[in-house]
Amino acid sequence: MPLMRIVSFVTVFVTVWSLALPVDVPGDHWAAPAVEEVVKRGWLQGYPGGTFRGEVALDRYQLATTLARVLADSPLPIREAEVRFKDVKPNHWALPGIRRMVGEGLVQGFPDQTYRGASVLTRYQLAVVLDKLAQNLGVVFPAKAMRPGDLPSGHWAEAAVLRMTALEVLPLGSDGLFRGSEPVSRYQMARALWRIGQLTSAGNPVQISSPPAAGTVQQARSAPAAGNVEALTRVQAVQPPEAGQSTPLAAVSGVALPAEWAEAALEASLVHLGQARPFGRAWATFKHHNRQAIGLLRLEEKPVLEAFYPLNEAVSVASEGWAWLEGGQKLMHLDLKSQAARYFGPIGQREAREALPPVFAAGVEQGLLGGVALDESRNYLALINGRPLCLPDCSKAAGSVVLRLVLLGLNPDGLFAEYAYLLEAPGSRVVGLAWPKPRLLLVHEHDGKTSRIFAVDLNEADDLAFTEWDSPEAGLELRPQVKPVVKKLVLEAPLEHPSGLAILSPTEVATVQKGLVRLRLEKPLW
Questions:
Q1: Residues 244 and 149 grouped into a single domain
Q2: CB neighbour list of residue 56: distance below 8 Å, 6 or more residues apart
């Protein structure tokens, strides 16, 4: 039984599944679509008995023969070079592939005139070879790339790694690391070649496909925002921990815990997830009996609690030291060094610095908060209520889809902007917020059965702050007569009780539901 239940899903395009996979590749394996494609094209071959052996590491001989097949299937003219390596005999089975690779400029020997074909291929080496291949095939590289956290500046493979990760040919791990010295498995090679095939298919990129598995496919719905694709969503069912299998919080903690928290069950006490940087870390809200706390989790296969701060406040949602207190009328900022707290509240409220619009003093119900998130510069804080404010009263607002998305300027403190945000349907609620990039705000909505995560454009909306709509009497929650923020669906998954949102990488996010749940995006966020 793993210490924490982590679930992932892949949004897939609707396709027809025709060719059978190798017998040892599960249909729901992350590399299954890639294996099917490269085996069908003959780029990678199976073993006797119909197996693929995807975990087997590749060597430089196998690299040569594999890429020779890829080149033979490409529009590039045949270019071979006469090569003489001390350690490659004239009748060696890999020599034709080596000649093609050298002629194409993809590989070269070592200074001692050896090829060292039996040495294991590393991810750094593969990045350099595939980078040259992509250039020869005319692939257009993105202008910007996210730098892996473990890529040294000036590394001999630096430029190639940045381009190959930006193109998702060699994706980063969920922790933002590249792990370039690790060997390349047949699964990883299949995924990389499949992605190259996507990028080079003229006018019709290869689309991700995956075979339907019994009990795991949900019917597609029409996407609400322009430009979204109709998609199927597959997700493993989320089950509560079995009796006696819960993980004590102390078992994953790297810091000392108060005695009353030591035996708290991780799955039961973890109630909300907020964003943090660097990627792979997230602020979490904990509740145990009548006690509250916030803590910093490092989200690995075995999560690690790196910091823990018990509080005397009833925290609803928190992110990077900022907490929205239950009741929705106070924000708290906890200085993590001194553990001194400052409070912010609606304009005109006593005992708190001004920050929130006045309507929040009257309109937020306890427990209906949505999320808080800092932008990349740490100069602005976004927050959103979970459901429409109860203005003029809750019964009238129950059928509304209008929320208030508020941006606070932290230097100096004060209300920066307020926007109208429209939910997908009445009764839905916001359960999480993340702000990983200056122009990329992510909102996690839930309708009781399905989670939907939207990317929000803050540049195309009417600012409500200090207008006639910014008062209880205006009835904004009942009459959405202002231009809302533009949003686009980026992820959909069947979850029952999610809470929070953390960005782990451009292709992976996380939320809380009886423990941690990892969600994988079909397309990278940036």
A1: no
A2: 185, 186
For range 491-517, the mean pLDDT: 89
Sheet (strand 315-319) strand order: 315-319, 322-325, 331-334, 341-346, 353-356
Phi-psi domain of 223 (left: phi exceeds 0; alpha: psi -120 through 50; beta: other): beta
Using the Cα atoms of residue 394, residue 398, residue 402 and residue 403 in order, give the sign of their dihedral.
positive
Q: What are phi and psi of 266, to 5 degrees?
A: -60, -50
Q: Are residues 126 and 241 in the same domain?
A: no
- The three-state secondary structure class of 403 is strand
> pLDDT digits over 71-128, tens only?
988 888 888 888 888 899 888 889 989 999 888 889 888 878 899 999 999 999 999 9
Mapped onto helix, strand or coil, the DSSP state of residue 454 is: strand
Residues 237 and 202 occupy one common structural domain: no
Give 372's contacts (C-beta < 8 A, 6+ positions apart): 274, 317, 318, 319, 322, 323, 324, 331, 381, 382, 383, 433
Give Cα 139 to chain centroid, integer Å.
Answer: 25
Render pLDDT for 238-250 as a digit per residue (tens, 0 to 9): 444 444 467 889 8
Same domain for 141 and 239, yes or no, is no
Does residue 258 fall inside a structural domain? no
Amino acid symbol at 269: S
| Cis status, amide bond into 211, omega within 30 of 0 | no
The pairing of beta strand 413-422 with beta strand 304-311: unpaired
d(CA 522, CA 219): 17
Both 211 and 344 in one domain: the answer is no
pLDDT band at 143 (very low <50, low <70, confident <90, very high): low
* Band (279; pLDDT cuts 50, 70, 90): low
DSSP run (H or E) holding 407: strand 402-410
**What does pTM read for this prediction?**
0.57
Same domain, 243 and 214: no
Would 106 be classed as within a structural domain? Answer: yes
Number of domains within the chain: 2
Query: Which H or E run contains 129?
Result: helix 123-136
Give dist(CA 44, CA 506) in Å, integer: 28
Domain match, 60 and 205 both: yes
Are both 192 and 75 inside the same structural domain?
A: yes
> Residue 215: its pLDDT value, please?
25
Measured between alpha carbons, how far is 6 from 195 in angstroms, rounded to an integer? Answer: 26
Contact 259, 291 (CB under 8 A): no
Is the four-CA dihedral 34, 38, 43, 47 of positive or negative sign? positive
pLDDT digits (tens, 9 = 90+) for 259-277: 899 889 888 899 899 887 6
- Dig out the tokens for 148 from the structure: 């892996």
Q: Which domain holds residue 117?
A: 14-218
454-477 burial: b if 16+ Cβ within 10 Å, else e: bbbebeebeebbeeebbebebbbb
Asked whether residue 300 is domain-assigned, the answer is: no
> Residue 433 is which amino acid?
L
Does residue 1 lie within any of the structural domains? Answer: no
Instruction: Specify the pairing of strand 516-520 against strand 353-356.
Output: unpaired
